């Protein structure tokens, strides 16, 4: 059985997979040390910092991925620190990014 957790009032599972929003629905622009993400479907612009752009890049043009898979992809490029701490952070970001409509859960 999948391990469940509560993140910001939502039940999520450790093995929940996510994928990028439809291609072309997010326009990104770098502004100093932040990234502006314009979400075309909602008309909203989000100001984000690391690791959100890196997570989006790790999902781009890839198969849906869980927090564990994203940790493995990102740890090849960055020093993420202890796996347990990094996984919890990635999971939290995935939940928030889903709530904003920047990514979607996979069926």
UniProtKB/TrEMBL annotation:
Domain of life of the organism encoding this protein: Bacteria
NCBIfam families recorded: PqqD_rel_X
Protein's UniProt name: HPr-rel-A system PqqD family protein
Organism encoding this protein: Sphingobium baderi
